[in-house]
Structure formats: structure tokens, C-alpha cells
Amino acid sequence: MQLVEEEFERQARSNIQIVAHIGQYLHQTGGKRVRPALVVLAAKVFGEEVDHSVIRMATVMEFLHTATLVHDDVIDGADVRRGRRAVSSQWGNETAVLMGDWLYMSAFETALRERNLDILDALTEATRKMTEGELIQLTLIGNTRITEEQHLEIVTRKTAYLFSASCRVGGIMRDGTTEERKALADYGLNLGIAFQLVDDLLDFTSNVEKLGKPVLSDLREGKVTLPLIRLLRSHPQYISQVRAAMEEPPGETVRAKEVLAILAECGELEKAREEAYSYAARAQEVLKIFPDNQYRRALTDIAQYIIERDR
Description:
Elements: H1 2-11, H2 17-29, H3 34-44, H4 52-76, E1 80-81, E2 84-85, H5 87-91, H6 93-112, H7 117-139, H8 148-173, H9 178-205, H10 208-211, H11 217-220, H12 226-234, H13 239-246, H14 254-265, H15 268-286, H16 294-308
Antiparallel strand pairs: 1-2
Helix pairs in contact: 1-4, 3-4, 3-8, 3-16, 4-6, 4-8, 7-8, 8-9, 9-15, 9-16, 12-15, 13-14, 15-16
């Protein structure tokens, strides 16, 4: 992972001063680096030794993820990301959109050097699915009638497909069989769903110091996630309170905290965590086709970490 950090810094360099400056800023902002770790671990399941092309592709996945975050902050009007000012807040929306585009194109330029159509297929599918997920979510902002199925489709497209592609790419680079690549892709997909369900949950239960951004921001942005969907399905009398929380002025959280108390009282937060556990368990199950080595165990442990994290 230290090699991934060095490769990220190298790939973020540019003779265009503003690009180099923002690239360095994004690198310093950090992150959990889950996606590149998945590429490396998926590759190492097939054997200890991996060449630098695996490191490059791990960095590509982090570039793609970072690009989505830069664009998401423009769409959401977010001021803070990972405890620091968002690129859009610091340099403006126009620069942020173009920087996101630069990250996407740099990622694909690096991937092209592998001369592997299977890798490009994985990346283009994931990127298209992520964009579709964002578009679907935009059409449903503020919609208290969103269904679990619609929300799961957004979660799968926006988050899980990039997890899936990260694992699949690791298998492709080690010439895994069709069955092995599919198992890794399925692992990543289920892991990604679990990850996003926990992310949605942390928006209610964590704090700004741990999240690096304001809590209850999804609610105020009109994003109706799993705990709210289930609450409104079983207790439609709370719709007016949820809508009031969505319309609360910036900086105020009285209504949002009322909704949070209702969710806790009705047990919806705990039920959402149980749902995340079920997807993590599915992810762990599909790994059983691989030899029981330390890298398979690490992938199993990541699934556990993802559902137990508090940030």
C-alpha cells in the first residue's frame, strides 16, 4: 500500500500547475484506500509475488474513486470531504468538474498501457454503472416514496460495481479462471453493498470528527436511505417529520435529530446494520473456492471491518 501511495503521487503529477496542485491536495486528503487494497489482495490470493502493474492498477481504481468523489461534491454542494474543504469548495465547481474529468482520463490512460481488453471492460462497465447510479439518485432526491429495490439499485451502481471491478481486475491480472474472476467480482459486489449500507447508517450514528463531514447530511440533501425507507413504509405517519428535516435550514439539526430518535426507537438503525451483515456474509461465502491462505483471510477480514467500522 505504500507503493500505491507513491504511485498515486506520481500519477497525480502534471506540468499544468493547477492540476498538480489539486492532485497533491487530493493525495494528502487520504482516505481508507479500500479499493486499491482489494486489487492487491485479490491478486495475491493467487500467489505472493505481484509485479508493479498490480500497483498501477490499484492506483487506477483509487483515481476512479477519487474522481467520483470530486464530482459528487459538486452535485451535492458539499463543503467538506474527509475533514478538509472539498475541491469544489476550495477552487469552484468548474475547476472541480474538470479535475474529476482529468482523474478519469488519467486512470484510463494508465489502464490502457496494460493492453488488456478484459481490464478495460471491467473499468468501462464500472464507470458507466456509477454514472447511471448517480443519475437515478438525482431523479429520486427528496422522494419519500422510494422503494428498497430502487435504493439497492442506486447502492449497487454507485458503490458496489467499483468494488466488484477492483476485485475482478486483481483476478484478471493473475490470469484467474472465469470461475475465479466471477467469484472475486461477486465478492466485491456484495462487499460494496455492505459498505454503502454502513455508510448510510453512519450518516445517522457517527460524528463529524470521525466522518470528516457533517452528520445527517444525506437526510438534509434529500437522500432517503434504507432506515428511512423502511420507517416510512411501516410508519407513514412520520412522512411530514422527515420532509421537515429535509427542508431544515443549513446549520440547523433539530428536525433531523427528531427523525434520528424515531429511527432508533423503531429499531430501523439496527435492522439496517443486520442487512449490511447479510451482504458481508455473502461476500465471505463466495471466497471459499480459493485456497485458505493469508490473503483470502484478509479479504474475509475486510468484510468484517467494513460492517464494524465507525467512520
